[in-house]
Amino acid sequence: MNYSYSIIKSSICKLDLTKDEDYVHVYFVLSGNVKMLRKGKTLIYKTGEFFIQKPDKIPLEIEVNKGCIIYLAIHKNYFEKYYMKNTLNTENNFEIHHHIKDSFMNIIRNMYEKNYLEADICFIKMLNYLRVYLEIFDNYLFRPTLSKTINEIIEYINDNYKEPLKLCVVARELFYNESFISRKFKEEMNVTFTEYLTNVRLCNLAEYLIVRGEDNGIWEEFGFPSQRAFLKRFKETYHMTPREFILSTQYYRNPQHAITESVYTEVMKYLQYDKSSVNEMS
Q1: Which DSSP state fits 258?
Q2: Where is the HTH araC/xylS-type domain (predicted)?
Q3: Could you tell me if 109 and 70 are in contact, meaning their C-beta atoms sit under 8 angstroms apart?
């Protein structure tokens, strides 16, 4: 998969990062603190906090003070405007932040443990919430609609996306007028019912490809009308074939930034602390 990581440890240093316009950069402060100048203001991020740099922003100059930061560089192609089914379960910003940080740390943990399959699964989960985080103030379909009718349709699609769904079937099952929900869906979600359904299938299918490691007959299992239609949409979304997608999950870069035992220990401490904090709040 097209992402890489870097680990920066320093007493005090200044770094000019994120010069690559094709990548979204996610920074996690593992220890110490980080100072950053943004819009004329100095922002300070402490241990356990994260920040994100989008491709369309100017390069960051950050100061690492007696600590360690880890950042992931994720290709912008992963941030297409489609919806991941789990995001509707996100109730607030705290929960979004928790899921991003938890997935981030588990990516690093599994990379150290050489459990690359699980690392990629954590990466896909993190993307779910990064899309919500990045676009929460835009009218994209990452953002749940306020329409009760459309949310009901979304929930139905998310639960039944492997079935041979059509708009007329959903309308009949939920007792809605087909023409009405066709128009309403487009207004609320900025995509058609069919486009949304296809993208939900592709999102879930991607994780399945990583776990299974082969794509034989997968188009039928996920409700696509033909293999040709499936391949066309898959290439449009991921810019590679399913086979290339599977092979890309086996390729890992940045040996010069190998995760050390001390970094791994810090990651495990954070995961244990974060788990106990969440349990206390629940």
Answers
A1: P
A2: 151-248
A3: no
211 Cβ neighbours under 8 A, 6+ residues apart? 117, 121
Interatomic CA distance for residues 142 and 115, integer angstroms? 29
161, 203 contact by CB (below 8 A)? no
For residues 196 and 191, give the distance between their C-alpha atoms in angstroms, rounded to a whole number: 6
Measured in degrees and rounded to the nearest 5, phi and psi for residue 224 equal -80, 145
pTM, to two decimals = 0.57
For 33-87, how does the pLDDT look when each residue is reduced to its tens digit (9 = 90+)? 888 776 677 888 888 888 887 766 666 677 777 778 888 888 776 765 444 433 4
Q: In whole angstroms, what is the distance from residue 211 CA to residue 245 CA? A: 12
| pLDDT tens-digit series, residues 115-149 | 888 888 888 888 877 877 766 533 333 345 678 88
* Distance, C-alpha 222 to centroid of its chain: 21
CA distance 63 to 143: 33
Which residues fall within 8 angstroms of residue 103, CB to CB, at 6 or more apart? Answer: 122, 123, 125, 126, 129
Which residue's structure tokens are 């939920």? Answer: 174
Residues 6 or more apart whose Cβ sits within 8 Å of residue 79: 24, 127, 130, 131, 134
**Which DSSP symbol is given to 197?**
H
* Residue position matching structure tokens 């103030």: 137
